[in-house]
Amino acid sequence: MYAIVEIAGQQFKVAKDQKVFVHRLEGEEGDSVSFDKVLLTGDGDNITVGAPAIEGALVGAKINRHLKGDKVIVFKKKRRKGYKVKNGHRQYLTEIVIESITAKGGKKALTESMNRLSKAGKKASESKAEKKEEKKADNDLSKHTVAELKEMAKEKGIEGYSSMKKAELIEALS
C-alpha cells in the first residue's frame, strides 16, 4: 500500500517502513507525528483519490533524526561588470520513517488503462516491475546523502572517506 501525502508543503509518495527526508519538522527525535493531508492512496488495483484530500485518512510516522542536507553553491555573475557573488546553503532536514497508512472514505477511481490491461500486459508489467526492483537494489546507495555515506564508510573502516565525493563513496562502499 502506498499514499501520496503533503508534508511541510511538499508532496511525497510514501509506503510503510520507508525513510523520507522532509523540511525540518517540530518535535524531538523519537516523537510520533501524523499527517492528515493524504491526497491519494493505492492498494493494488484499488486507488482512492481525494478531492483535494481524503477525509479520515492518516499517515503515521516517527521522527528518526534531524540533520542538514548537502551544500548547494549559489554563484551569481554579471559579465564585464566585475560583479561576482558566491553563497552557500545547507537545508535543515528531518528524517522520518513511515509507520502506518490508514485510508477511510474518498472516491474510488480505476483508470481506464488498468481496465484495458490484458493478462499478457499484466505479466509484462510484472516483469518490468521485477527489473526495476533489481535496479533499485543496485542503486540503493545513491539514495543516501553524502553525510550518511561518510558515516557508513567510517563504520566499515575506509580510510580517506572525509575527502571523497558522493560517487567515490558509493564506489568504495560497493
Description:
With 174 residues, the chain is α+β, with helices and mostly antiparallel strands. The protein has four helices and nine strands; from the N terminus they run βββββββββαααα. The strands form two sheets. The protein has a five-stranded antiparallel β-sheet, with no helix packed on it. Helix 3 (146-156) runs parallel beside helix 4 (166-173). The longest helix has 20 residues, at 119-138. The chain is globular, with a radius of gyration of 21 Å. The model is unreliable at 106-118 (pLDDT under 50).
Compile the SSE list and pairings.
Elements (H helix, E strand, L loop, with lengths): L1 E6 L2 E6 L3 E5 L8 E4 L2 E6 L2 E4 L8 E21 L4 E20 L4 E2 L3 H5 L2 H20 L7 H11 L9 H8 L1
Antiparallel strand pairs: 1-2, 1-5, 3-8, 4-7, 5-6, 6-9, 7-8
Helix pairs in contact: 3-4
State the separation between the terminal residues, measured CA to CA.
30 Å
| Biggest sheet character | 5 strands, antiparallel
Number of H/I helices: 4
- Unreliable spans: 106-118
Q: Helices and strands, in N-to-C order?
A: EEEEEEEEEHHHH
Q: Care to count the β-strands?
A: 9
Q: Care to give the gist of this entry?
A:
The chain is of the alpha+beta class and 174 residues long. It has helices at residues 112-116, 119-138, 146-156, 166-173; strands spanning 2-7, 10-15, 19-23, 32-35, 38-43, 46-49, 58-78, 83-102, 107-108.
